[in-house]
Amino acid sequence: MRLSQREMEICKYLAEGKKNIEIAKILYLSEHTIKSHVSDIIANLGAVNRTQVAYILGKENIIKI
Fold first, then answer.
1. Strand residue runs (E) in 1-65
2. Is the pLDDT of residue 46 over 70?
3. Model's pTM, two decimal places?
4. What are the structural domains, with CATH classification, of the chain?
5. What is the DSSP letter of 36?
6. Residue 18 exposure: Cα atoms within 13 Å on the Cβ side
7. Which of 9, 32, 37, 49 measures 20 to 30 Å from 57, CA to CA?
8. 30 Cβ partners below 8 Å, 6+ apart?
9. Residue 37 CA: distances (Å) to CA of 23, 25, 29, 30, 31
């Protein structure tokens, strides 16, 4: 499991339940860029969806939920 610093930052917001548009506004990025990052994160972790991303990272103590 290898995530970039930006992907880890996005994961933090995913775990907080934020939507792509909310994350985009916080990070001053486009919603399309966030969607791309989220897709990459899901693929990297072998997750099914963004909820499972938060679960995996919480289980591995990578982020606090």
1. none
2. yes
3. 0.88
4. 5-59 (1.10.10.10)
5. H
6. 21
7. 32
8. 24
9. 11, 15, 11, 11, 10
